[in-house]
Amino acid sequence: MQTMSGYELSRMIREQFSISELPILLITARSQIQDIVTGFLSGANVYISKPVNSLELKARVNALTNLKQSINERLQMEAAWLQAQIQPHFLFNTLNTIVSLSEVDTDRMTVLLN
What we know:
4 helices; Rossmann fold; mainly alpha; phosphoprotein; CheY-like_superfamily; 114 residues
């Protein structure tokens, strides 16, 4: 890239997206330990040095894709569980309101029931 390094781009991406929201796979000719450490510190999930082995690349992309899918499924399950916890409370509160109106304002209670 001509205007910035991959490390800089990774840092910019991490300012907006977490490591689980948007995985970053760096492919570079740099293979020194310090370069690899810098890549991970800049926010990369995976660091691959050139020359790239196509099987390794495919396996790493699949691993990142599976991880992202697993995280999304977990978040959906959590949201469904929270929603299931809220619904009984909502029903209980609604019924409580209607019952309290039965002693005070039967016309309003009828409107709520309808």
